Amino acid sequence: MKYSFSRKQLAIPYAIFLVLFVILPLVVVLFYGFTDGDGNISFHNFIAFFQSKKTVGTLLYSLVIAVITTVICLLLAYPTAYILAKFKVKTGPAMLMLFVMPMWINFTLRITALKEILDLLEGNLAMHSYANTIICMVYDFLPFMILPIYNTIAKLDNSYIEAAEDLGASKAYVFMRVILPLTLPGIVSGVTMVFLPSMTNYVVLDMVYNSTYIMGSLIGSYFSSYDWHNGSVISIILLIIIGIITAISARFTETGSRGSKRSAIN
Amino acid sequence: MNVLKNKMKKLIFAALGLTLAVGVLTGCESEEDDVIVLRVSNWEEYMDEGDWDEEEAMDINDEVTIYGEQSLVEDYEEWFYETYGKRVRVEYSTFGTNEELYNQITLGDVYDVVCPSEYMIMKMMTEDMVLPFSDDFYDMDNENNYYVRNVSPYIQDRLSNLEIEGNTLDKYASCYMWGTLGIVYNPEYVSEEEASHWNLLLNQDYYRQVTIKDSVRDAYFAGSAMYYYDTLMDEDFINSEDYFEQLDSMINATDADTVNGVEEILSQAQKNVYSFETDAGKADMVTGKVVANQQWSGDAVYTLDQAEEDGLILCYSAPVEATNLWFDGWCMLKSGIDGDADKQLAAEAFVNYMAKPESAIRNMYYIGYTSSIAGVTDGLILDYIEYTFGAEEDDEEAVAYDIGYFFGEDELLVMTPEDQVNRQFGAQYPTIDIVNRSVVMAYFNKEGNERINRMWTNVRCFDLDSLFN
């Protein structure tokens, strides 16, 4: 009895945090999203968002950036994480450190440096602003993809692979039917960590001279003109998108890897 | 000017300040109760913080040496005690944009004195947030009233012409810095003629080589000057009797036709320019990434100085169609002063101390913007102008540059090196021709504001139609 009581007590700081910084802001966002300037409940802001070609264009533009960034990150991160985790490279931990270390440096600083390199290669950066956006996003978010995948692969029980091989599966078959499904939780948490930020991180676009708005810049622009309602609508739409992604990925992890759920970090 | 050096020093200064602050915090219990606390909010890097190098001291005439030993805020605190016998402590904070300041205030931050731009002052006036200055503030006989005694009559006149809901701005605000909106350009690539028109932003010869400010109002100004180009350049229009009124209503128009026209022009500009920049423009100009960029005159001076240190010569032009004459002004907030007579005295004294010619010179030197102070009582400002921009006596190429209007005189000629006319001097003190074709961009009403913000979103969002064309 005494034990459970003190556990409750321990949870109080987190509960306060949760209410103040998660639930309350969410309520405020929902309130502004579903009201108009006079405080009446209204869906007008949502309808207006989907009726305007420009705002829908921004949604699609951000989605495309996010999908491309996420796919490239995944294609780069998976083999890297696999090699680092599976082949007992002596320098493995050091290598992982090298990949993760950029996370310790402020990203504007990193992108400023990358910008100078791109500037040397390309000349006028504004000529390839879209490609540069993707390059910088990938550079920025790659560690967030590598780390969770590395963790799941490192914890992968080798006996599953050995069993499959003993039963005559080819290397490719083992990978497709055993390794990939078992590491899916890592992929899913990597994807969720990369996808949403790359839809909203407009500082990257600013820095590489891409003047087209993405969802994040749209929120910023509404808020700076005191339009809390439309800004909140964008935030809610982003929430819905991340909700959908989480729902889909939860499905994947359910069916894909019942055994290794514990090793997932999400 | 040693702005970079100043920045370094500023860092060290800030570190020192922090250590001091810790000391003050721990020892603050002993502070007397009768200290007036004045909460000031100003633009970032918009006031001299002192700690100059010894060689930075300026002997601007035989008697006066300008030297910033400690920050202007500290100087003010000492001066206030000496003059009024009361202690004041300034809580100084900064903001990045007018909207940020407004949001801070409406979300509950309390300030006594703030320094927003003219349109934000007008907005706050319509919301009954601003306290007018007292009659004492305008008393010409009081020697401590540095502002009314020294402010440029031209600036004060422009302020008194700005009216909202029957109140004129000169009663609610005192101008701190002012300037124009123009184009910084690299004369190696861009000709003076090209840079004197806003349509440089659309010029395809400079595809992806010119930047525009990422600010709806600045972009809108350039856009509407391009939209009304034919009228604005028409001789009959320029010579018409109600030129000023017409110019004003044209540039400040927010009707649907104008906004749509400007949207089209700015959408074209977006496809042509290097980028809409929030802060990178100055550096990109110096490093040569771009050949021209839209800039406020004060930032232009900073950019020109920086480039000069790297051996690069840049110029500034305020386009001939029209330029945006802007003001940043001190005003007192009702929520902060709250009927406290001592506080109001300290607030008005603060504004006056900043208007002291020595303070104005230190600020101009430090930040590159132009003070509203003409220093008519002691002639210091003119001495500073001659000290900074005057030509050597044996310079045969020197030209006479007239800045009489600023000092309320028909003519006041300063001999200056020829190239200064479209460089730092011209940027800080535009010619009468330029200011005669300048407009103050007022505060738009709610409907107009919404229309312009929508226009801006449309310009900046991804255009789905472009996929199918």
Number of helices in the DSSP assignment of chain A: 11
Count of individual domains of chain B: 2
Would you tell me which CATH topology of chain A applies?
Answer: MetI-like fold
Task: Tell me the structural class of chain A.
Answer: mainly alpha
Termini separation of chain A comes to 31 Å
Topology pattern of chain A, helix = H, strand = E: HHHHHHHHHHH
Largest sheet of chain B: 7 strands, mixed
Most extensive interface: A-B, 29 and 29 residues
CATH superfamily of the largest domain in chain B: Periplasmic binding protein-like II
- As a whole number of angstroms, the C-alpha radius of gyration of chain B is 23 Å
Named at the architecture level, the CATH assignment of chain A is Orthogonal Bundle
Distance between the termini of chain B: 51 Å
- The CATH architecture of the largest domain in chain B is 3-Layer(aba) Sandwich
Helical percent range of chain A? Answer: over 70%
CATH topology of the largest domain in chain B: D-Maltodextrin-Binding Protein, domain 2
Strand residue content of chain B:
15-25%
Low-confidence stretches of chain A: 256-266
Task: Give your account of this protein's structure.
- The complex is a heterodimer of chains A (266) and B (469).
- With 266 residues, chain A is mainly alpha-helical.
- Chain A has a single domain, classed as MetI-like fold (Orthogonal Bundle), CATH 1.10.3720.
- Chain A has helices spanning 2-33, 44-51, 53-86, 92-100, 107-122, 129-154, 158-166, 171-200, 202-207, 215-224, 228-256.
- Chain A is globular and about 70 Å long.
- Mean pLDDT of chain A is 86; it is low at 256-266.
- Chain B is an alpha/beta fold.
- Chain B folds into 2 domains: 31-178 and 327-383, D-Maltodextrin-Binding Protein, domain 2; 179-325 and 391-468, D-Maltodextrin-Binding Protein, domain 2, CATH 3.40.190.
- Chain B is 44% helix and 16% strand.
- Chain B is built from 22 helices and 20 strands.
- In chain B, the strands form 6 sheets. In chain B, strands 1, 4, 5, 6, 9, 16 and 17 form a 7-stranded mixed beta sheet that branches.
- In chain B, a hairpin with a 5-residue loop joins strand 2 (58-59) and strand 3.
- The termini of chain B are far apart.
- In chain B, 48% of the residues are buried.
- Mean pLDDT of chain B is 90; it is low at 1-5 and 16-31.
- Classes of the chains: A mainly alpha (266), B alpha/beta (469).
